[in-house]
Amino acid sequence: MNAANNPIRHFFCALGYFTRIPIPAWVGYLPDDLDRAARYFPLVGVLIGVIAAAVFWLTHWVLPMRVALVLSMIATIWLTGAFHEDGLADAVDGFGGGYTRERMLEIMHDSRIGSFGAIALIAGLLLKLETLAALPVAQLGVALIAAHGFSRLVAVSLLATLDYVRPAGKAKPVATRLAGSGLLLAIVFGVVPLLLLPPLWIGTALLAGIMVRYGVAAYLRKTLGGYTGDTLGMTQQLAELACYLAWCACVLR
Question: Please, how many CA atoms are within 13 Å of residue 202, restricted to the half-sphere of its CB?
């Protein structure tokens, strides 16, 4: 099979781009690899969710539930190099501190974290911990796997309808529109893990994800005219939190 069309290579490219997991040397690099790899981003999310679930279950037997959840969160942050959390902080800093499109993009490009970004990170991590702690222990492993995969589908779906707004940046390699069989494959990878959850949880997660996706897309069109790598990270974090909040509502119903 031609290397440029090898789906295994493209999966490994996605894995190498979004995680610290070493990939085989034979994978190499071609200029359009990440364009083709975008469809596998939700599958990478599923793998991250599996690792998060494994850390939780291994530590939950000997440690309090919340401690096990914190260790699980730390594991995913380390595994991804805080890739999405960094995007959340930078995007919130940009939207909170910028009054023009140019100023927003300038702030997002700055590697320093500001007050808005720091508050967003703290609030996001606390909310993630508390919502997960409110879920039934028996469902936590599947919930982590499903949320990590589905939230990345919500983020990557922005590639189907929005344009990349920077001439260069960390999302530039995946700035090609996602469509056709690639988009369908991403949907399969992102939605199938949800089917392991109770029916009500599936419905609320889909509704929450759709609301985040279209709300963020409308806001990005209005403020930036498209997306950046930071806004994709922000979208993933918001979609993941939306899933946990929706499932908490199901539990309390």
Answer: 10
**Hey, how many other C-beta atoms are within 10 angstroms of the C-beta on 193?**
24
The alpha carbon dihedral of 209, 245, 64, 89 has a sign of: positive
β-bridge partners, 227 = 164
The pair of structure tokens assigned to 234 is 């922000």
pLDDT at position 149 is 97
Query: Is 0.85 surpassed by the pTM of this model?
Result: yes
Q: Per-residue pLDDT tens for 204-241?
A: 999 999 999 999 999 999 999 999 999 999 999 999 99
Average pLDDT over residues 129-144: 96
What is the per-residue pLDDT across 168-199, written as a single tens digit (0 to 9) for each? 655 545 546 677 888 999 999 999 999 999 99
213/49 Cα distance (integer angstroms): 20
Element (H, E) at 192: none
Give the number of residues written for the chain.
Answer: 253
Residues 6+ apart with CB under 8 A from 84: 233, 234, 236, 237
- For the chain, the C-alpha Rg in angstroms (whole number) is 18
As a whole number of angstroms, the distance between CA 249 and CA 114 comes to 32
HSE, CB side, 13 Å, CA atoms: give it for residue 24: 7
CA distance 41 to 13: 10
The upper half-sphere exposure of residue 67, i.e. CA atoms within 13 Å in the direction of its Cβ, equals 7
Q: From CA 41, how far away is CA 150, in angstroms rounded?
A: 10
Q: Are 237 and 209 in contact (CB under 8 A)?
A: no
